[in-house]
Amino acid sequence: MVGKGTWWMVSAWNEVKLLRVLQAVDTEAAHIVRFLESFQDSACTYLVFELLEQSLFEFQKKNNFSPLPVRHIRTIVAQVLVALAKLKELAIIHADLKPENIMPVDHAHHPFRVKLPSPPPSPTPLLNMSAPENAHIQIAKLLRKY
Questions:
Q1: Contacts of 114 (CB under 8 A, 6+ apart)
Q2: Domain range for residue 52?
Q3: How far apart are CA 53 and CA 39, in angstroms?
Q4: Radius of gyration over alpha carbons of the chain, in Å?
Q5: What's the CATH code of the domain at 108?
Q6: Domain total for the chain?
Q7: Share of the chain above pLDDT 90, in %
Q8: Annotation says 96 is catalytic
Q9: Is residue 44 domain-resident?
Q10: pLDDT tens-digit series, residues 121-146
Q11: Given Cys at both, which of 5, 52, 73, 84 links 103, Cβ 3.0 to 4.6 Å?
């Protein structure tokens, strides 16, 4: 859910635009969380994604932050790099990469298969509509302070 107000409306509009670009991607192969739809009422814009139970941070917390074996770390990092490569191909920068934003898909059936959510909305997205490759909307997400 995206709140109300001018900044939020612009941010929600840019986020939906970005997510529509990502809808054309094979999210399973790209290891990116699937965007399903968006809708709005008079107060908010709602973004609907595939349901994923927890983040890598929550998974580690549940396991008392015990270290993962190197083979599992390699598996996770390889998938994150595939997702980042796809985002780079689309000229999208994910500037909020952290364990809270790495989502295990279904640990019981697919151990250590992960996906990245789309980059978070930024107060100042950069749209480069004059780029030669007009087919793609180039959006750079700026690092947010939190």
A1: 31, 56, 76, 79, 80, 102, 103, 104, 105
A2: 6-140
A3: 22
A4: 16
A5: 1.10.510.10
A6: 1
A7: 50
A8: yes
A9: yes
A10: 554 444 333 444 433 333 333 233 22
A11: 52
